[in-house]
Amino acid sequence: MQAKPRPAATPEQALSAMDHLIATHLVGQHEIAQQVGMNVTDLTCFAYVMEAGENLLTAGDLAARVHVTTGAVTGILNRLERVGYITRRPDPTDRRRIRVAARPDAVARVLEVYEPYYARLTELFADYSPAEIAVLNDWFTRASTLAANYLEEHCRPD
Fold it and tell me: Start and end of every HTH marR-type domain (predicted)?
């Protein structure tokens, strides 16, 4: 596919567009969380559990990813377990730790809400050449790493 002409943009315009995307995404996450009976933090934790698949995360892994204390993540896991989204499994290598698994029926419920949105995003990606998608992927990956590092440096919970 040939790259389509794109309007010129400054870094400031790109940052503004990114800010609008993030704001819309945050509102959307709140709405989706309500649809599936969760709050945004619980939905974020569940997304990490889903993403991990068979490489089950520990409570400590989740606490680090969402920047909450291990005590707070215990409450999150209690809520997710109570509403049937996760199960806890003993860690096969350390009896003191548990690992968290997503329940398949819960994954299906969440994907049912997200799949139409992801289908639209896939259609949007179709407007970009493979080289442009590679640039987008590189930018998203690097920006995510930058954001995670910034959070680690400046926003770590006690």
Answer: 1-145
